[in-house]
Amino acid sequence: MSPFRRSTTYQLDLSRFPRRPEAEHQRHGLTRIAKADATVTDPRPITIVVPVYNAPRDVRVCLESVVANTAHPGARLLVVDDASPDPAIAPMLADFAARYERVEVVTNEINLGFLGTCNHGFALTASADVLLLNSDTVVPPRWLMGMSLAAAESEVGTVTALSNNAWAFSVPAVNFNEMPGPIDPVGRAIRQTSERRYPETPMGHGFCLLIKREVLDATGGFDPVFGRGYHEETDLSMRAAAAGWRHVVDDATFVEHTGSVSFSGEKADLLIANRAIIDDRHPEYGPRSEQFLVSDEMAAVRARVDALWNAAIGATRPRVLVVGGPVVELAAPAADLAWLTLAVEGSMASVADEQRDVVDRFELADAGNGLLAVVADLAANYGIEALALVPEGGLEADAARQVDAAAIALGLPVLDSDAARVEFEQARKQARVFAPRSASRTTRTPSRQPR
Asked: Could you tell me which of 3, 314, 357, 353 has the C-alpha nearest to residue 145?
């Protein structure tokens, strides 16, 4: 299924080119899961909701990572301050909203607690899907587009990312893992090696949880009975599942989560009390969660991450897809970028790595429009972070138009084929949806609190 709403459909026929043997993919360091029905139009709008209460340092790091690494064309950021008493919070958030477009800060008149703040944020997101993000998280490049891809199938109601500290969603080990390095290379390595299995889970996890608008409308958000929090997303997930929705893990997206390493007495009491509510309401949750924890799908995901957790992280480079005609030559590719080349000739397209070994081939069912879908497919399956065009290689004008259209829809910057690293970073900044703001800041205090 496509991660994008349908307007014009570009069909691919991949049946003549089955997936290459796994051993060859391992040799090249590339993994390919064929998706035959890629379609590219406008993504579903998503509002990133970040509840905030004190902890200004964590909040700043979180929001700066969101601004730096979000290129989803339909994204907005809503920060909901739950009447934080820390005097550093209000001016910091006001300054943040003043500096960036598509960022809004809302301040509760009184402290509503975590659940109340989340529901307040949900109510302010209109018809958009919601990405609930804890303020003690740090996100990597392409994170939101990855979550959108995982939510592509119509019956998927929620998507949860992988993390270093999110119980059953943690990798490589369950619960807590020390980060092996900065978030960008860690997230990049996991995305580039992902098989996009999208394991099914009985529940989502609120540290980084994409919730479709239809699920929010059907469930009414979080139930206030869960008080200060814990298991509220479990209850929402179980109610949504009863209505026919599925919940999946995005095994291509990894989000760093500070969380609470120590298990305080207060937290333990809240977990015990709220788990009792869950067991009473949803007796099937216990067996299902235990099955998920030891499932073969999650075991495979953890094994893959474990294999690269320390060794491969530092060597992972941003991956660029270079698109040209029958002959694709790179003048002077930057050494700190990883390159794939897509050579297009008529209705055929082939993908080669930096050693010029062919790692994928496509036959375009529609030679006039199929390239756009191929680029979308490769961007998802190879963790592409930028595109580069080589028009002198014989790329036809219409093919170049399709690549540009794919770049816009996917939030991918377009580089020159001999791009240096500095251009890659500059192009990434230009592709961000949260551009610097020239107008006055957008903050507000609601005149009344939501019921």
From this structure: 3
Other beta carbons less than 10 A from residue 397's beta carbon: 7
- The C-alpha atoms of residue 335 and residue 418 are separated, in whole angstroms, by 11
Average pLDDT, the chain: 84
- In eight-state DSSP terms, residue 392 is G
Distance CA 249, CA 267 (A): 25
Would you give the distance in Å from CA 445 to the centre of its chain? 30
Residue 221: name the closest of 133, 76, 123, 155 by CA: 123
Please tell me which residue, 86 or 348, carries the higher pLDDT value: 86
Helix (H, G, I), strand (E, B) or coil at 159: strand
Mean pLDDT to the nearest integer, 20-31: 36
At residue 8 the predicted structure's pLDDT band, cuts being 50, 70 and 90, is: very low
Between CA 179 and CA 191 the distance in angstroms is: 16
Q: What is the pTM of this model?
A: 0.87
Domains of the chain, first to last? 1-33+317-419 (no CATH), 34-308 (3.90.550.10)
Position 368 confidence tier, pLDDT thresholds 50, 70, 90: low
Q: Is 1 helix (H, G, I), strand (E, B) or coil?
A: coil
- Measured between its terminal Cα atoms, the distance across the chain in Å is 37
> Phi, psi (5° rounding) for residue 436?
-55, 140
